[in-house]
Amino acid sequence: MARVFMKGCEAIAEAAVRAGCRFFAGYPITPQNEIPEYFARRMSEVGGVFVQGESEVASVNMVYGAASMGTRSMTSSSSPGISLKSEGISYCASARIPMVYANISRGGPGVGSIQPAQQDYFQATKASGNGGFEMLVFAPSTVQEAVDMTYKAFDYADRDRNPVLILADGVIGTMMEPVVLPDAKSDEEVAAMKEAKKDWACVGHKLDYPNRAWIEPGHWQTSDMQRANEEAAAVYASWENEVQVEEYKIEDAEIVIAAYGISARISKSVVDMLRKEGIKVGLIRPITVHPFPYKTFDNINYGICKAVLDVEMSIPAQFVQDVSIGVKERCPIETCLSSGGNIISREAIIEAVKKINEKQGV
């Protein structure tokens, strides 16, 4: 297949269109603006609908409505905009409505900066909204991965009837790389996917709530809510088979870097550079950050590993908490951090690795 040169945000939008997304509502915020801009041009070409809502809150609730009718639907934003969408995302989880959204994250907290950061990790993996619902959360480190994850995310959302998040950052969203785009769903395939949802979707018929799988949030009986929570928990438990992770040169590693997204991409180049100097470094890169690949950390040779180095663009560190659970106090954990829009540098990671060696008297 032909490779095309695309910006990350535009590639995400094109992947969504090709996956059969036919409704997008969003609101401008840097650095994700190219996603709604691309949809604004593209949706009319495939018979879809684009809406620029009057706010993030309005936009996510438009997605809630469109997805409730069985249409593959998506929204996107950056950091504080995602916070505003959190109630609508929680409502989709509550009503078991499939939708996909992307967070092209920036510095914070608050309005923060417009530059890239990884300071939304807790929000993405631990508390994307009230009620304790969970989501599959994918963290790309290349534009190609962002394309592949977005395309597949709609299948996961439909299968589980649950929101799915693409957790990217301003680097992935704004950089340009060659990508191979997936085949576009045909009009017939898009129609068939919508038809397959008619047993629960709002399609104009009178809903028989006791016998149907869709319940409007706010119309719960206590027993119904507990049952729905139990059913959702069973779905979450099934995701153990969906864990994705990259292990890179950890077999003989004396220092293992743990990182995700753009930080992992930068760290991987550091591994190759330090290996040339004879420093045995490896990398664990979670591709799904929820569920988290805790078991992968059992593959570290703790007999020779001096430390695990957590690399992330967040101060204070967030990702490190899941790393700590995986390590289980079997070796020290050090950190190499940046935040507020400062992209982690290879030089900083190299310095952090060499400081660990100095501590060990190497």
How is the secondary structure organized here?
Blueprint lengths: L2 E5 H11 L4 E4 L7 H9 L6 E4 L3 H13 L4 E5 L2 H16 L3 E7 L15 H5 L10 E3 L4 H18 L2 E7 H5 L1 E5 L6 H9 L26 H16 L7 E4 L6 E4 L2 H16 L4 E6 L1 E3 L16 E6 L6 H9 L5 E5 L8 H14 L3
Parallel strand pairs: 2-3, 2-4, 4-5, 5-7, 6-7, 10-11, 10-13, 13-14
Antiparallel strand pairs: 1-8, 6-12, 9-11
Helix pairs in contact: 1-2, 1-6, 3-4, 10-12
Describe this structure in words.
This protein has two domains: 3-241, 3-Layer(aba) Sandwich (Rossmann fold), CATH 3.40.50.970; 246-359, Rossmann fold, CATH 3.40.50. Helices cover 39% and strands 19% of the residues. The chain has twelve helices and 14 strands. The strands form three sheets. Strands 3-2-4-5-7-6-12 form a seven-stranded mixed sheet, sandwiched between helices. Strands 9-11-10-13-14 form a five-stranded mixed sheet, with helices on both faces. The chain has a two-stranded antiparallel sheet with strand order 1-8. Strand 6 (136-138), helix 6 (143-160) and strand 7 form a beta-alpha-beta unit. The protein starts with a strand and ends with a helix. The model has no long low-confidence stretch (mean pLDDT 93).
The helix/strand order is EHEHEHEHEHEHEHEHHEEHEEEHEH
Q: Tell me about the biggest sheet?
A: 7 strands, mixed
Number of helices: 12
Q: Could you name the CATH homologous superfamily of the largest domain?
A: Thiamin diphosphate (ThDP)-binding fold, Pyr/PP domains
CATH class of the largest domain: Alpha Beta
Strand ordering within the main sheet? 3-2-4-5-7-6-12
Span from first to last CA? Answer: 49 Å
pLDDT under 50 segments (min length 5)?
none
| Averaged pLDDT | 93
Give the count of structural domains: 2
